[in-house]
Each structure stands twice: as C-alpha cells, then as structure tokens.
Write a structure and sequence with these properties.
five-stranded parallel sheet, four-stranded antiparallel sheet, binds zinc ion, binds adenosine monophosphate, Four Helix Bundle (Hemerythrin (Met), subunit A), Rossmann fold
Length: about 475
C-alpha cells in the first residue's frame, strides 16, 4: 500500500516497523462539545485506514486519547481551557461534560460505523506518565521552568518545523493574530508541558507535581498515551490537517527529545470539511452534527458515503445539495444490490471474487482512494457472474467501506415485500376488484367502470394482468 506521508511530503510504500503488528495512533476529540461532521470526516477516514490495514492482512493496534484537560482556546497555549468553557456554558462540572460528550462522540461514531479503537484513554488517566516525561525533558535540557510553568525549548532542536517549508515567522504561535504573547517563553514557539500558572485561576482539575499544583499541556497527552500503550515507536499517527501544526509538530519535538530516537514513521492528515463560511469548527458555536442530519431525515450512512466519494487529501465542501447528491447515489447503489437475488443457489465463484477484490485493493492501495473503492463495487454489479458471487464480493468489500450495503439492500427488499403484502391483503379493495371482475363477466361494463372510478377516486389504480387484476396506490 502507498500512503502519503506528511513528513516526507511523498506517497511512500507502507512498511510497518514490525511486520507482526501495525501500531496506529489517532488524536481523539476534545470533549467540550458535540463532534461536528467535519471532525467525523477525519474519524471516518481513519476508520477506513484501520479497516483496510486489517483487510490487507495486518494485525493492528489502534490507540486514541480523549482530550478532557489541557486544550486551551488557542492551540498556542493561551486562553481558557476548552473543557472549563464547556462546563460553564452548560452549568455542569468538567467531568460531567467530559462524560456526556465522550458518550455522544461514540454514539455518533456507532451511527457512522466508525469502529471504536482498541484502546481509548482519557488524558486525565495518565498524569503520572506526563510528569515522568516532563521531568526527563527537564533533566535532558529540553524543558525549563519560567513563571511557574514548564516549557519545551524548541531552540534545542535541529529541526522544529518537520511538516512544512513555511516561513518560520508565519508560524510563530506567539505572534498570531488574536493570540497574546506569553512572555515567559524563551522562543516564540516554545510550548507548555505543564501549567501551574494560568490567568484562569478557576481551572477545575489540578494535580500535584514537582513544579507545583497544576495540569498538563495539551500536546503531552498524546506523547504520554501513545508511549504507554504502543511503546517507543509507532507506524501511523493520524489527525485532521489542523493538528499538523502546532500539535503534531510539538508531539514529535517532545517525544523524540524524550526517547532520543525517531518516533513515528508515517503521518496521515485528513483535510478539512468546509462549509460556505470556511472550515467547520466547534469554537464557532454553530455546526452540523450527526443528530442534526438525522433530524433532517438523512441516513448517517449517506454522510459516510459522501465522505468516501472524495479523497481524504482534498478539502471537502459541504452543501445540502452535495449531500443530497450523495443520498441519491447511495440509494441507487443500494437499489442495484437489492435487485440481486439473496437466495441464489450455487457456489461463490472464488476466482471471480479474487479478481474483483484486486480492483478494490488497487484503489485503496493508492493512498486510500476510497472513491475508487466505491467504483470497484459498481464493477461487481456489472461483472459477468452470478448473484451469489456478487453479493459475497460486496460483503467482502463492505468490511472496509462499512456502508451497510447488504443490510440496506435487505431492508429495501423487505420494505418492498411488505408494501406488496399490505396492498394484496386489503379486503375491502379486494372485494371491489372481485365485484368488478364479476360485472365484467356479466358484461355489465357500466358497473365495472363505476368500480374502477370509485377506486381511482380513492387513489387506487387497477392493473389488469394475465393473472387477474392487481392494484397499487398512486
Ligand atoms: P478536536 O475535537 O477539535 O480536538 O478535533 C478532533 C479531530 O477533528 C482532529 O483530528 C481535528 O484535526 C479534526 N478536525 C477539526 N476540524 C475539522 C474539519 N473541519 N474537517 C475535518 N477534520 C477536522
Ligand atoms: Zn494528539
């Protein structure tokens, strides 16, 4: 498989550090609000990556943090803690907010068929791990104390901006518009490892540490949690593109300084879902959630389909019209699958299944091209083979796409059957149809027409077939 690596800015052949286990880490949600469908685009694409690796035969261990402390309003370590902001907004405690939005996040994930990672760790569970890492960084000369906080000294690194060639000035966290400069920092991009001093004195959760009572910076949690569960190296670290700087840049700085060697091999970044106003973001307050889509009558699977139709390294524009187009395409695909006979006899043609599977894998091997993966499903429908093989192949591919294709098709078949059954068993209409047939037999055409008109007035259309009259609602 070829995967675009943000570190090298190239598509690279994926070769895990240890052939027996792929270690994967995903930055989890900051649980101060509902996840919006932009966040969920990132989690859908990461889910596809994990499932595809498993499908391709790898054993995968995937770890995800839950940010329930330390993520300040600005990614540059200033402003109020987002969790505290959420708690104030809803007149609840920080822990109540964390539980409520963590549960809501996993409920949204379930609706979108996003598998729960093998390990899910709230940041507040691993304080001792962070303290140990921060102390080691101080001992090694990478961390310093200033104004009561512990900072990471980015000037100690040979290369700090690992993901891009941007002008360092443009990226200086301390001088970005709307962000106050922290005068304790030796260098503008130094970042906080541990806070004991903050302008916001009412910080809800605090822990004892060698540097005073305080709380961890945002970036240290991903280093601590990944080292705890994945050890000293990892294969793939994922997140949305906004995480590349400063979050992932800082994660690499502190992890490699702590370990003394390279940490993660591949960095995968999902581009943003944008709406008409630009990037969808929680802090803007108004955003779309899965529940809102459902309230408007959209099946969450149609949103997953919408995401899979585009490549993860392109910005995706959300409009209702674009989503409606995805709904149409998804329904059409399901209709075609519903037309296959689920009771077809015979054996699955294994050779054909293998050939069709190769097309699917070719698409996903090309930097997770999910739209080619969907095209491969259409190829199955067009293939010259029996329904049993087609259904088995689609079920196989849907292990990765997770679009509920067979379940949705079965539901459609069932609904059609029930509609048919309901119509066939309306005794009143059947009695009228029988009376019309009798009238026709007696050549009483006036009575036959009268019955037809009466049914028509009630929205029933008669269809004369060789097996006798049938009817449908119009
Ligand atoms: P957060 O809950 O803000 O920490 O973000 C959770 C994940 O969603 C991170 O991986 C972000 O990079 C990602 N993300 C944030 N905004 C968007 C967006 N508009 N489109 C796609 N991913 C996003
Ligand atoms: Zn992270």
């Amino acid at each position: 498989m070829y995967l675009y690596n943000s570190l090298s800015r190239k598509k690279e052949l994926f070769v895990p550090n240890h052939p027996e286990l792929v270690k994967m880490y995903t930055c989890g949600p900051t649980v101060y609000h509902y996840a919006h469908i932009g966040n969920l685009r990132t989690y859908i694409m990461e889910d596809v990556l994990e499932k595809y690796l498993r499908y391709a035969g790898y054993n995968v261990k995937r770890v995800m943090n839950i940010t329930d402390v330390g993520h300040l309003s600005s990614d540059g370590d200033t402003g109020e803690d987002k969790m505290l902001k959420g708690a104030k907004r809803e007149h609840k405690t920080v822990m109540e907010i964390a539980k409520m939005y963590t549960d809501a996040f996993f409920s949204d994930c379930a609706k979108l068929n996003i598998k729960r990672p093998d390990v899910v760790e709230p940041a507040t569970n691993c304080i001792a791990d962070y303290i140990h890492i921060v102390q080691t960084l101080i001992d090694k000369g990478y961390g310093y104390l200033a104004g009561g906080n512990v900072y990471f000294d980015t000037s100690k690194l040979e290369k700090y901006y690992v993901f891009n060639d941007f002008n360092a000035e443009d990226l200086d966290v301390g001088v970005r518009e709307g962000v106050e400069e922290d005068t304790n920092k030796r260098n503008k991009n130094d970042f906080v490892l541990w806070f004991t001093q903050s302008k916001f004195e009412d910080q809800a959760l605090k822990w004892d540490s060698p540097w005073g009572v305080g709380y961890p910076g945002w970036h240290i949690e991903c280093t601590g949690i990944s080292l705890k569960h994945l050890g000293e190296d990892m294969d793939i670290h994922c997140g949305g593109i906004d995480n590349a700087f400063p979050h992932h840049t800082n994660e690499i700085a502190q992890s490699e300084a702590y370990l003394g060697h390279k940490w993660c091999k591949y960095w995968m970044h999902v581009l943003h879902l944008n709406d008409a106003a630009g990037k969808m973001s929680k802090s803007k307050g108004e955003f779309l959630t899965v529940s809102l889509l459902e309230q408007k009558g959209y099946d969450p699977m149609a949103y997953r389909f919408f995401c899979l139709q585009s490549h993860y390294r392109k910005n995706l524009v959300f409009t209702w019209e674009n989503l409606d187009n995805a709904v149409l395409a998804y329904n059409k695909l399901v209709d075609k699958i519903a037309a296959l006979d689920p009771n077809a006899g015979g054996e699955v043609d294994k050779q054909m299944l293998w050939e069709l599977k190769q097309r699917f894998m070719k698409g996903l091997d090309a930097d997770l091209n999910t739209s080619l993966g969907i095209t491969a499903v259409y190829d199955v429908l067009k293939a010259k083979t029996d329904d049993k093989t087609k259904l088995a192949t689609i079920a196989d591919m849907d292990q990765v796409l997770s679009l509920n294709l067979l379940e949705a098709a079965a539901k459609k078949r069932e609904a059609a059957k029930q509609a048919e059954a309901a119509e066939e068993h309306d005794p009143e209409i059947e009695a009228l149809l029988a009376a019309r047939t009798a009238a026709k037999k007696e050549k009483n055409f006036a009575e036959a027409d009268r019955i037809r008109d009466e049914l028509k007035a009630r929205g029933i259309e008669i269809i004369d077939t060789p097996q006798g009259p049938k009817w449908k609602r119009v």
